[in-house]
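User: Earlier you gave me the apo prediction for this protein. Now I'd like the version with pyridoxal-5'-phosphate bound, so I can compare the two side by side. Same sequence as before, with the ligand SMILES added.
Assistant: Got it. Here's the input I'm using:
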Amino acid sequence: MKTIIEPFRIKSVEPIRLTSRPERERLIAEAGYNLFGLHSDDVLIDLLTDSGTGAMSSQQWAAVMRGDESYAGSPSFARFEAAVKNLMPFRHVIPTHQGRAAEAILFAIFGGAGKCIPSNTHFDTTRGNIEASGARGDDLVIAEGKDPQRLHPFKGNMDLEKLEAYLEKHRDAVPVVMLTITNNAGGGQPVSLANIRAVAGLAHRFGKPFVIDGCRFAENAWFIKTREEGQAGRSIPEIVRDCFSVADGMTMSAKKDAFGNIGGWLALNDDALAEEARGHLIRTEGFPTYGGLAGRDLEALAQGLSEIVEEDYLRYRIRTNEYIVERLVAMGVPVVRPAGGHAVFIDARAWLAHIPPLEYPGQALAVALYEIAGVRSCEIGTVMFGRAPDGSEHPAAMDLVRLAFPRRTYTQSHADYLLEAFEDLAARKDALRGYRIVKEPKLMRHFTCRFEKL
Ligand SMILES: Cc1ncc(COP(=O)(O)O)c(C=O)c1O
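And here is the structure of the complex with pyridoxal-5'-phosphate:
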């Protein structure tokens, strides 16, 4: 059969409240045209993020009941630790309440004034934690990774020449080399196994530890299996183990590729560093056998880790994005290509070329998508990145709109509904207007600022 179906049946449903277009126009106006200001029950299809929004399986819910809430030595921790170590062979696994808590601990150890930390592209919270420590984060992704239209199988790869030159130049200032798989901030693009090994090799040649931000490790492994030479015949767990066996540690948001609604971990090989990390953990998160989580969460994650590496799931997951990207390309909508792992990115600056960047074409597209179809997306462009620390405003590198897909939550007909919304938008896009910001906070304005239609 050619049709790739959702490889699950639905046992429990969450109704979607259908809204009318006039109702949505009123609701988004009341929210100051900021999609973060909407109540989620006024959203028909919520593509704001894939983080913590996935559906748990019946086996995960069953595991929740097994959760042991002992303060110390819980068997739920033992099961969680074994599930992590089965895929990522690190000596120490330190549970945290989500990914950024693992990052905060990592950079409490490795960060500090005058330090600089390279990655393909640091995710915002990673960069935030690096900068909060006084250090600087630098992005060294390959040139193809910065060009939305350029095709390359591994657009998340680190530029190895740049990394080598960087390590030569900043030899004493680099405490750790990082790599994000898949590269979320770069469009969910994968990193090849060869690149992971080469980055590890370079880091180790310069005597630096190598730490992977592994939030979407299973999606990355699927791309390695299907796109990298010599990998097709291997199982996903084998590929995952290969990726992490060359690293000295990892940070993880279990809200992505562990099918959790909450959770994360920091893993390390070095005994002394792990002891230091556990010291921070006890102060900020909790005792080392639960970290920031309940025993029931640890159980759900242990089960989730066995489900996320199933090939039928990954095939369906990645195919959904490819399907949407193929249809959008056929409609003439400019998108980041090839399709990434967890999201589809629309190039709003190219599609709404009549709206200048400082009138926020990404915001105009995201609001129109909500008004027309009740779909919530996320502007990743000048609203998010356009305000400099000195208060000046400038266009971001790109004006994208991200449609991030929660795991196992929506079906094919939701994808078709989304595509119909784009057909409607394509017919009226030239009439869309830009926006002006009328109220904004000092930091991270995209979450709470208010807009007026121009
Ligand atoms: C690549 C990457 N790293 C880190 C994080 C932070 O994880 P969390 O939201 O669990 O704190 C995210 C979240 O979106 C992410 O995508």
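For your comparison, keep in mind: The pocket of pyridoxal-5'-phosphate is lined by residues 51, 98-100, 123, 125-126, 180, 184, 213, 215, 253, 255, 264 (CB under 6 Å).
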